[in-house]
């Protein structure tokens, strides 16, 4: 028996886990099944998961023909990529300065970061919406990206991470005549990958799934993110056509779920370590 | 004195001044973005809450606490607050206890550990809007598989999302499903931090069986993790928006109206920005109160180093 011990004997543990797992997976199983079934089969409400007749081509074809799925996914990539790029661009230097440099105002800046951690993103949303609307930037990538370009959480995370880096590394770089700016990108960043990966996963998952802000600043298909795309397809096209709706849901869910299945450990660790403050 | 200053300034700046300049330069981009995207808009929300600002209407006027007075008599908002409280009251405890249970169960043996961790974590990384659609099909009163199963068993078949009696429970069940994998991995991180020798020591001291080990070692040592998970679960449940926006839009009959949905409707559908800002402020105060509670309890009680 392991020191931690088990509350249940092995076989029972596996049985309980399997039953719970089945419950957790059932939305995915039924979603995938319905996306392959013809409408009459769905409306018969039979308990058979496996389709009698396959209508996958029709269902997925309907989605692809009626809404710009590729555009949604591309928008998701641009928005998540843009957000992460700016978050790192702003947070890595700031985290380094807060961790390793002495300058007047540092404590105030760090206090501001800690305070910022407490503010949910819904709070600044109203004035930001008014501002973007005033300068005519609604329905743009800028409006989707800019509010999240600064992540106080990223600054906090990098500051904690950089504090643990040895000072000798920096002294050596300074003796080599490097300026602080090139130290950040050529010495600090290469050492920051574990924290950057963890934060990157956290950030992409959060913004790929975000509905609140895109719903506020985007109308129409051109700049819709995957979350918004599902919503638009539901309200404009699908109606009671559950087969097509499930096909749309599968298409939009798949990219992140596949990424998760491929890099499972990193995802769990990334979300667990960053979740500790997020 | 003047001599020292002169020598420092003439060749170039002192090392300390250089460091300060570098520090400011590196902080500058983040500071500008922080001011523009976080601090100023947040302060603007606070100010808006005391005005009658409506988008497209005349210039806003300062109305003091009138928005907050309105909130007290607004029956829709009272319903919304009550629903949010009920939702949080179900989802947060269930996510904490369920996450702890799953973490213990998955970590109890080596077989299937990675697989089941992935299964329970999957909802956390799934597009919540898309999964809400899947739930809508699953819970559909006539063609949904859940009711088909209940019908086959001869049990009653509720109108899960379209009856005001069950809608909040249904949304809460989805909320638990979405959150439990997250709390589970947080508890797993807490579990792996417990030194294994402590279990051996407890056994020497006469701890017998799994329940003793849990009661004497696991539970007390998980204290800080548990406190943190409780607070983050409360805050996450408080933020419920996606499922409501997709599935019920606050209905039927305001039975699933929740705080952020009300705030969204007031602000972005009815364009009553002042009132919406006041609701946002209440939301912020609740979040801050939860965080403050965490800090106080952490300072007082949970000291395990």
UniProtKB/TrEMBL annotation, chain B:
Keywords: Cell membrane, Membrane, Transmembrane, Transmembrane helix, Transport. It is a multi-pass membrane protein. It comes from the Bacteria. Residues 81-294 form the ABC transmembrane type-1 domain. Coiled coil: none annotated. Pfam families: BPD_transp_1. InterPro entries: ABC_transporter_permease (IPR051393), MetI-like (IPR000515), MetI-like_sf (IPR035906). It is found in: Cell membrane. PROSITE patterns: ABC_TM1 (PS50928). CDD domains: TM_PBP2. SUPFAM superfamilies: MalF N-terminal region-like, MetI-like. The chain crosses the membrane at residues 21-50, 85-106, 118-138, 167-195, 216-238, 273-293. Belongs to the binding-protein-dependent transport system permease family. This is ABC transporter permease.
